[in-house]
Amino acid sequence: MKKIIAFLVLVVIVIALLPIVGNKLVEGELSNRVEVLVSYGVEVSQSSTESSYLNTKKHYEFVVEDTEKFMQYLSQFADAQLPPYIDAMVDGIRIGVDVEYSNFPISDGIFLDIYPLTLSKNMMQNLKKEDINFYTYIENLLQNRGVLYHLNYNVVNSGFKGYIKDIKEEYVLKEKTKITLELLDASFEGNGVLVAPDRLSSRVGTIKFTVTNENEKFNVELKEFTSSSTFESQSTYASGAKLQSMEFVITGTGTKDAKLKLDELHVNASANTQGETAEYNLKTSFKALDIVAKTSTFQAADFNYDISLSGVDKKSVEELRVLFSQAKVSLSPDLEEKIQKSVVNIISKGLTFFIADFSLAQVGLDNVPMVKGFNLKSKLDIKADADLAQKLQNAPLLLVQNIDLDATFKFSKALFALLNKKAPLSSIANNYAKEEGEDFVFDIKFVQGELTVNDKVLQ
Length: 459
Prior knowledge:
The protein is an alpha+beta fold. 28% of the residues lie in helices and 49% in strands.
């Protein structure tokens, strides 16, 4: 019995001493991350530590002193060379970071608050020069942590989740223009390196931006935005986003009222370079679109866009990606020529462009009741041709032999009649269209340089 009691006492003592020993796992991870930042041109201008029996709190203030080195760090996680304006945006920026973690070694979680304390040197100087009151407002907003990211990070499995502090700000400029900005209910979660995660999901409840003066009001409002992305590599990924509604409105005495409203927007994009050739897919849809501008109106319902590009030579695409990256930094005549040659090289290897669905269920123009829309499906094959560049220079007409097209375009008779009022199209329908119920149908083929519509050679 005495041995059992002694063992239990020893266990209690060890557990009690654990917080004193400290959480070496978290401490080591923090030290490593700070050392990396310092090695890439970031200075630790302030740091402090506050420890209790159970927890440790640390405060850091980081300043980007060597922008060139810091850009090298960021470039490791980018699939393209970062443009010069990014340098100006981060030069001299000061970031505050508050860290809290448990002193128990078995704990692997870190809680962080990340917030900008100043903008870049140039931005702050320009603000101060142009409008000292607005400069003071921005300075106070940042110093009071008006823009803040809260993050829970697991140092073992690299999982994270967090939120962006709600922003509800209003400011009146010196010319009496009022600006209002709202960012509400923003959260995110994912896995991987924070700068370039392997998986990232986000949600924003509301984004609202309003500019109001004596004569006009401009308002932009987005509601319920969600997104989700996974990255196998920089060139293999799948991303999707949804937006419940988006509205742009301009009203006032100085101009005609204008409005754009979009409901239930969906966008999905993916790229796969793991096979012998690369494949790219893009899908877009929306439930309703309503545009009012001056005396014109446009309405659309149930739009779908589903396209893919396959059979693309991976090496050639990578070469073009690098060239586009360089062009963002500095575009020269020599670089333009290289880009053109790279595009020709990609096409010379052959590819297939497929439109699975390009359709609009209903459409309305100028206050006319909505009518049935259109639908397009097509497949375009470009054959491989090692002599493509030479033919393009010397005999471009020979290139038509490389192209095969098979497409079906269905156009509602009601929409055809509506457009015919704007621009006469009756001759096209009379000469080439075939009728299927409520639609005009055009079966379009381009083979061996010959274009036919519903088996009639296009004259």
